[in-house]
Design a protein that fits this description.
The complex is a heterodimer of chains A (about 325) and B (about 220). By secondary structure, chain A is an alpha/beta fold. Chain A is built from eight helices and 14 strands. Chain A has helices at about 10-20, 80-90, 105-120, 150-165, 170-180, 230-245, 265-280, 310-315; strands at about 25-30, 35-40, 45-55, 70-75, 100-105, 125-130, 185-190, 210, 220-225, 250-260, 285-290, 300-310, 320-325, 325-330. In chain A, helix 3 links the parallel strand 5 and strand 6 (about 125-130). In chain A, about 50% of the residues are buried. Chain B has about 220 residues and is mainly α. A two-stranded antiparallel sheet of chain B has the order 1-2. The radius of gyration of chain B is 16 Å and the shape is globular. Classes of the chains: A alpha/beta (about 325), B mainly alpha (about 220). Chains A and B meet through helix 3 of A and helix 4, helix 5 and helix 6 of B.
Chain lengths: ~325, ~220
């Protein structure tokens, strides 16, 4: 696979610099470390996110209006260094406290928890929310052990709105955790993505697809021959609805998230079937949208994320969010 | 000798830093058998920076000194081991009042809180073939010394002895984490490099305290 970079060791820094040039009034780079900040330092509880690069627009694009206030980026699939997270924490408005939102992966959890303590030594109050939405990585009884994947987009949207609404640190964390516990994601991979080195991230023979594969190629839960779009959507919705327990009368927001290689033509066909299934079951669709907000290096395939809503979550979910890579208006 | 003033505490950690740097090859040899072989280099790199950060410097409080050691390790070692060894020195001082002197109960308390943070964060228990296998016994050794009202050198000696036993015990364990995990039962008979580093740290503290006591 041909990749367009300069030096590998410079690519994340150069990505940030190039991205910020698209919106210099909205964002600024973090000095000395790989990170990105909102220019405006709003007087509210701030959200700091971060993680390994490689799933853009995840992380980079999640700093914006109604989203996070700052982010620390690691190299591709490597957790950001603690010092970078700490510097982002100090650079955002931290008077009312800071909420760390990252996906539930060992390296990120280690760093964010420790940085929370370091921030406390500097008198900054912090809380952590580890997004755990991948239903294939642990059973529902151990929901908090699940990996975090594309559902972080839905959680972040609720989180950004909750903090913008002026909630206190603990109230905002309660709302964000509620969104986290009500977010469920299931994926199918149809072809491997390629790392910046050009190396394939997994092995998947032509004509086969795999459900529930991790974005670094960790084995999934089911490998089958390629099937028609409707059958794939049926399989995925079956897993998801069983796991999240949504039934007639429940209200949901659903995201069809393309991994980068799969076309909008295909994703719309999937979305058609997803809408049919939800209607057929009598589940109320508050929102159903197609986007690419979590793309593991141009992998083929997509994920479906369901956020089960109540009145409180709906209020925050409906608030607008904007960054050049994450635009959501209802 | 029951309390360490700030200068003594700094000297003790300088002694620890020199000892870790000296043992780089030994750690590399151990880690090559089960891991990437980079543990010795990482530890030496971290403690060379600690040596630089402490040499000729005055610290106001015990907590400032621990924070400096922890932050230096975190920044220079990087990756998971930077966080884990950073945790060993940082997590125990969060939320406590500053102290100008260190005694055995204070050290036992700091390391107990660090240990609990490390176990929670790394999701490791005794028997998983990690640094916890040496760290937990060392903390228990310190706590027993406190309970028996032992003096500081004796308490650190007990911690070092317990850490060593824990480190030797990792030879009988199958790894649950990292590259060593893929070795399964083939890892039996080989000790964990992280646990070895923890033992080196406590042994160095103990050796420094015994030598200082003799020269008093």
């Amino acid at each position: 696979m041909n990749k367009i970079i300069n030096q590998p060791e410079q690519m994340i820094k150069e990505m940030i610099e190039g991205y910020v040039e698209t919106c210099p009034d909205l964002l600024e780079p973090l000095p000395d470390y790989k990170g990105i900040l909102m220019k405006q330092k709003k007087n509210k509880v701030s959200i700091v996110t971060g993680g390994g690069s490689g799933n853009e627009p995840w992380i980079l694009g999640y700093v914006g209006e109604g989203l996070a206030d700052g982010a620390a980026l690691g190299n591709v699939y490597i957790a950001p260094p603690a010092r970078a997270i700490l510097n982002v924490t100090k650079a955002v408005n931290h008077e009312k406290g800071v909420i760390y939102i990252c996906t539930n992966h060992a390296g990120d959890v280690l760093n964010f928890e420790l940085v929370g303590e370091l921030a406390q030594l500097d008198g900054i109050d912090t809380r952590c929310v580890f997004v755990a939405d991948d239903i294939t990585s642990a059973p529902i009884e151990k929901q908090e052990e699940r990996r975090g994947v594309a559902g972080v987009a839905l959680v972040m949207k609720v989180a950004g709105a909750a903090c913008d609404a002026g909630l206190s640190l603990d109230e905002a964390v309660r709302v964000i955790q509620k969104a986290n516990r009500n977010t469920f994601t299931f994926s199918v991979t149809t072809s491997p993505g390629y790392l910046p080195s050009g190396k394939a991230m997994c092995e998947l023979p032509e004509g086969f697809i795999e459900y529930g594969m991790g974005f670094n190629g960790e084995p999934g839960v089911l490998r089958t021959e390629l099937k028609p779009a409707d059958e794939i959507a049926d399989t995925m919705m079956d897993y998801l609805l069983k796991d999240c327990g949504a039934t007639a009368g429940d209200e949901v927001a659903v995201m069809v998230n393309g991994f980068g290689f799969t076309s909008l033509l295909e994703l719309c066909i999937v979305n058609r079937r997803v809408a049919e299934i939800l209607k057929g079951k009598g589940i109320k669709v508050h929102d159903l949208f197609i986007d690419s907000l979590f793309c593991p290096q141009g992998t083929g395939g997509f994920s479906l994320s369901i956020l089960k809503l109540d009145e409180e979550l709906k209020r925050y979910y409906d608030a607008p969010a904007y960054s050049p890579f994450f635009k959501k208006y209802n | 000798m029951n309390t360490l003033n700030m200068r003594q505490l700094r000297d003790m950690f300088l002694f620890v830093a020199r000892r870790v740097i000296e043992r780089e090859d030994f750690l590399t040899e151990i880690d090559l058998k089960l891991g990437d072989g980079d543990h010795g280099f990482g530890m030496a790199l971290g403690f060379k920076a600690v040596k630089e950060a402490l040499e000729g410097k005055e610290f106001e409080t015990v907590e400032n000194l621990f924070q400096e050691v922890g932050m230096t390790l975190l920044d220079t070692m990087g990756g998971a081991s930077g966080v884990l060894f950073g945790t060993m020195f940082i997590s125990g001082i969060v939320g406590i009042e500053p102290h100008q002197k260190a005694d055995l109960p204070l050290l036992a308390g700091i390391y107990r809180r660090s240990l609990e943070a490390l176990k929670r964060r790394g999701k490791a228990q005794v028997g998983d073939k990690t640094m916890v296998d040496a760290f937990e016994p060392a903390v228990i050794g310190l706590e027993q010394a406190v309970a028996n009202s032992e003096d500081l050198p004796k308490g650190l000696a007990m911690a070092a002895e317990c850490a060593k036993k824990g480190m030797m015990h990792t030879r009988d364990c199958v790894a649950k984490f990292g590259r060593a995990k893929s070795y399964g039962t083939k890892a039996l008979g080989l000790q964990d490099a992280g646990a070895t580093s923890v033992w080196i740290i406590f042994q160095a503290m103990s050796d420094w305290a015994s030598e200082s006591k003799e020269s008093e």
